[in-house]
Amino acid sequence: MRKVTSAPNRTEQVYTIVRDGICNGTLEPGRHLVQEELAASLGVSRQPVQQAMLLLKAEGLVIESGARGLYVAPMDPDRIVHHYQIRICLDQLAARLLAGRIAGGDEAVRKRLETVGGKLLKEGKSAQLQQEAAAAVALDMKFHSLIYECSGNPLIAAAAEPHWNFLRRVMISVLLHAGRGPTVWEEHESILETLLAGRVDIAEAEVASHILGAQQALLTAIQPDHVLG
């Protein structure tokens, strides 16, 4: 892991570094997080590490196991479902609002969605073909973030962020091993076309199908025998 710089908010820096390590798989599920060791490796005192651990515990990325201390949280199927239950509501809301704006003639929004969305599709397909899973997931997040942004509701992105943080680490594994990479970008392309056409009802349905497909792929990848309730 990289060293913390001298910027004022060290807690935020420690949080970001450890969070990214968990999400990209460098800090694997079940890894014992010894605060003294983290503080030494990051070049900070224990206080910002303790504060960062509280934030990570609140997001479900770190768990406490009694006197044994803190660990990277396991890939819990039930928790994944809970995150997706919330995310599907947020993404459908964003798609409905965005398609409505375009149907209402908002040319500036339509142009931004077409330009930036098209660029992300091209980059995402390229990353997927080259099996650059971390890059593909980052672009996946940017695609959905663009929909949040263009929806006109600035609170959607902030509400969705902790769910993306939790899911990002398993999404990388799914793109590498579950064979879903091409499907993800085909669905993104279809969603983009539907949004640009201002089809509110179809956009909501496509987004729901896309997210439920991703959820099932994640569950299958981490626990093949898991059955959704």
Could you give a short description of this structure?
With 229 residues, this protein is mostly helical. The protein contains 9 helices and 3 strands; from the N terminus they run αβααββαααααα.
Structural overview:
With about 230 residues, the protein is mainly alpha-helical. The chain folds into 2 domains: about 60 residues, Arc Repressor Mutant, subunit A; about 150 residues, Four Helix Bundle (Hemerythrin (Met), subunit A) (Up-down Bundle), CATH 1.20.120.530. Helices cover about 70% and strands about 5% of the residues. The protein is built from 9 helices and 3 strands. A 3-stranded antiparallel β-sheet has the order 1-3-2. A hairpin with a 5-residue loop joins strand 2 and strand 3. Helix 1 crosses helix 3, helix 4 runs antiparallel to helix 9 and helix 7 crosses helix 9. The C terminus is likely disordered.
Structural class: mainly alpha
Q: What's the rounded overall pLDDT mean?
A: 88
Q: Estimate what percentage of residues fall within beta strands.
A: under 5%
Main pleated sheet: 3 strands, antiparallel
Number of helices: 9
Major β-sheet strand ordering = 1-3-2
Number of spatially distinct domains = 2
* Helix-strand string: HEHHEEHHHHHH
Low-confidence stretches: 225-229
Number of strands: 3
- What would you give as the CATH superfamily of the largest domain? GntR ligand-binding domain-like
Shape: elongated
Overall CATH architecture of the largest domain: Up-down Bundle
